[in-house]
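Subject: for your reference before the review

Hello V.,

The reviewers asked for a structural picture of the protein, and I figured it would be easier to keep everything in one thread rather than splitting it across files. Below is the amino acid sequence we used in the manuscript, unchanged from the supplementary table.
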Amino acid sequence: MTIEEFIKTLDAFVPFSDDDLENDTEKYLYRLMAAWKQTPDKEKAVPMIFRFMERYPDTHFGSPGPLVHAIESLGVRSYQDELQLSLLRQPTPLTIWMYNRVINSLTDPGIIGAHLQRLALFARHPLANEASRREAEDFIEHQRGRLQG
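And here is what came back from the structure prediction:
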């Protein structure tokens, strides 16, 4: 599979209904992401993967699921800018969750505090759905507790 074929396939995919007993979105995406991992220049597809998550903010893709596993396999430096751009466009429960994982990796209280301010902005983003807002608020509470020791 070429990177262009991967992007075309992901762009055309519509998640299966939860009522669909024949098809499973998470399994389909695990197979697709396994093929993506073998693709040269796979980093080129990261923006598209985030846009896919934005298109379907109410779809459960797993915890964390194939999309996050694949992106995180590249290392945070490979996707952190695209994650921020995605959060600025439209926070989703999954991108909020990924951002919290980035914050979890930090130890400097000042830097964590700055990220919490950003997380609060994402919680109030006009395109964030209710699940994204709740997720952000839960993580803000978690990170504040972490700062307080």
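For the response letter, the relevant points are probably these. Helices lie at 3-12, 25-37, 46-55, 65-72, 76-89, 93-104, 109-123, 130-148. The CA atoms of residues 90 and 127 lie 5 Å apart.

Happy to draft the paragraph if you're swamped.

O.
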